[in-house]
Amino acid sequence: MNVTTNNYRKLLEQGVNAWNKWRESQPDQRAIDLSEIQLESLDLAGIDFSMINLRGAKLYDVSLIGASLRGTDLSMASMRGVDLSRSNLSSAHLSMTSLSEANLTQANLSGADLRGANLRLAKLDHADLSRAKLNMSSLSEARMVGAILIGANLSRADLKQATLAGTDFSRANLSEADLSHSNLNVSTLVGTDLIGATLVDADLSESNLCRANLIGANLYRANLSSCDLISADLRGSNCSEAYFIGADLSRADLSRAEFTKANLSKVNFTGANMETTNFQDAIMPDAW
Questions:
Q1: Whole-prediction pTM value?
Q2: Is residue 231 classed as helix, strand or coil in its secondary structure?
Q3: Is 23 helix (H, G, I), strand (E, B) or coil?
Q4: Which residues have a Cβ under 8 Å from the Cβ of 38 and sit 6 or more positions away?
Q5: What are the angstrom distances between the C-alpha of 65 and each of 97, 155, 179?
Q6: Mean pLDDT throughout 156-161?
Q7: Which of 6-20, 85-99, 112-126, 254-268 bottoms out in mean pLDDT, i.e. has the lowest?
Q8: Residues 6 or more apart from 4 whose CB is under 8 A from it?
Q9: What are the Cα distances from residue 200, in Å, to 27, 156, 160, 178, 182?
Q10: DSSP element (H, E) containing 146
Q11: Position 26 confidence tier, pLDDT thresholds 50, 70, 90
Q12: Which one-letter DSSP state was computed for residue 30?
């Protein structure tokens, strides 16, 4: 049966139960094409939109709470302010999608493609973004408290002023990402790639950066107090005026790093490589 976009719209207007029941009868669910559709002021909580084509769709004042969007093509869609909390967007295609101010709290975005997406001011608390592609995406001022980004790719992403407290970035790629003025308090960045990242004025206090790669990173005035930086690579990084009070830098590579005017009181430097490190005017540990 050839169902036109208008017929799809009429079916959706009958409610989620009617749509989900109809979907169960469709043998080829991937053939459902809602590309470029415009939907306004609809309650679609719990709807099954998995695996369908919503490329370029425009969704205004639509509720998709708890919806299934697994593997759905939403690339270049406009979804500003849409409520997607607790929805399943695993392996969804969201490249160049506008999700600014959207609510993605507790959403499953594992393996999703969000390259170049606009997530400015979005809510992503406790969302699962493990293995997600977020290259060059905009997450400035987004809220991602307790989110999971294990193995995610955020290279060259914009995370300025983002709230990332308690987030797990283990083994993630944050190379050349901009995290300036962001809050990463008590976060996990074990083995994370932060090569060339900008962390100016970022709060990383009490975070775990064990084995993190911070080569050439800009940590000017960042707060790394009580951080675990065991075996971290800080070669050529700018740590001027940063706070490392009580941090553990044992076995870290600090060669060619800049620690001018940094506060390094109570820091553990056991086994650290400090060849050509600049400690000019820095506050050093008492036992230095």
A1: 0.94
A2: coil
A3: helix
A4: 57, 58, 59, 60
A5: 18, 29, 29
A6: 98
A7: 6-20
A8: none
A9: 53, 15, 10, 9, 9
A10: none
A11: confident
A12: G
Structure tokens that stand for 92 in this block: 């969804």
Integer Cα distance of 243 and 220 in angstroms: 9
Here the tokens at position 195 are 């090569």
pLDDT above 50 for 1 = no
Instruction: Check whether 62 has a pLDDT greater than 50.
Output: yes
Give the three-class secondary structure for 8: helix
- Tokens describing residue 220: 């000017």
Tell me the per-residue pLDDT of 211-270, one tens digit each, with 9 for 90 and over.
Answer: 999 999 999 999 999 999 999 999 999 999 999 999 999 999 999 999 999 999 999 999
Residues 153, 280: Cα–Cα separation, whole Å: 36
Token digits of residue 222: 């960042």
Look at residue 2 and give its three-state secondary structure: coil
C-alpha angle with apex 201: 284 to 178, nearest 5 degrees?
125
C-beta of residue 75 within 8 angstroms of C-beta of residue 53: no
Distance CA(113)–CA(91), nearest Å, equals 7
> Is residue 213 a contact partner of residue 193, using CB atoms and an 8 Å limit?
yes
Question: What does the H/E/C string look like for 108-133?
Answer: ECCCCECCCCECCCCECCCCECCCCE
Q: Reduced to 3 states, what is the DSSP secondary structure of residue 202? A: coil
